[in-house]
Amino acid sequence: MNRPPGLSVRVKLTLSYAGFLMVAGGVLLGTVWALLLRDYQVVSARPGEFVPVRSVVVHVYAPATAAVLLFLLVFGLVGGWILAGRMLAPLARITDAARMAAHGSLSHRIRLPGRADELRELADAFDAMLTRIEAHVGEQRRFAANASHELRTPLAISRTLLDVARSDPDRDAAEVIERLHTVNTRAIDLTEALLLLSRAEQRSFARERVDLSLLAEEATETLLPLAEKQGVALETSGEIAPVNGSPALLLQLTMNLVQNAIVHNLPAHGVVRVNTGVRAATVVLTVENTGEKLAPHLVSTLAEPFRRGTERTHTDHAGVGLGLAIVRTIAHAHDGRLILAPLPAGGLRATVELPAQT
After folding, report:
1. How confident is the model at residue 355 (pLDDT cuts 50, 70, 90)?
2. Mean pLDDT over residues 294-314, rounded?
3. What is the full DSSP assignment across 21-76?
4. Out of 3.40.250.10, 3.40.50.970, 3.40.50.2300, 3.30.565.10, which CATH number does the structure's domain 208-355 have?
């Protein structure tokens, strides 16, 4: 905003401190003066003579009062300037950090020393905000780089197929069209996943009552043909689990979890268990699957965008690498969280905790 120039806060505090000191001194001196004027006469040096007290006060007390007020004015200005500078010093550090952040330096922290007070609480809150912003910006940069790479891959493949078809007129056109269709489908799926991820991050959705147990049943019924093709058995159980949220996004969350559990499973005779439950203040959706044993350091990265888990069992349904990332984003958009944990016998347990409907 373009604002007209004005007095600094330090000058305002100085003037306020000096003005208050002048007023307090004036009240004090006025009170003393009033007490002196309460008697109307005073005995002079000569016996039997009386001199009016007002003339004594005017000639003796008035100059002293003026001198005291002048001293209080100078003392208030100097002392107020020093005190205001010391009190506002933390604000100068906060302002410098804000300017550095505005120019792109998000790694700087204020780290204001001393005991807790309002200014130090403000500095700590500003440091915490910078930490979150730095982490978010870093995550967005990595996501943008990964998304660009993932989108570039199908486009490069399509261009290669077209160049080969153009240079070899005798090549089977049906084969080229089929491969182009597959690559194009993958690019569309990736674009739709990116749009869904963006929508969930912006929380641009209406909330209504949703029963996670019904969504779990719908997801398992929809993905049953895929499970049968993969040789995976689906098991659902649990109780009514009401939450406030977007039915479409929560269904997508459930579908992603179940599909991920089906795709990354044993080559044959695998199992996926879907369960819903209610705790003290949360609703829980748990999806477990059988599979190979997973290293803890690998599990901690599975919800990152475009991480497919290189040590996990692969199939021809590799997806676009955003399944669990979308689950985590949707959970966060509903004030919940995603917890991933490897199972001792092999496989993965994915747990989504959401606030219960109030």
Report:
1. very high
2. 69
3. HHHHHHHHHHHHHHHHHTS-EEE-SSTT-EEEHHHHIIIIIHHHHHHHHHHHHHHH
4. 3.30.565.10
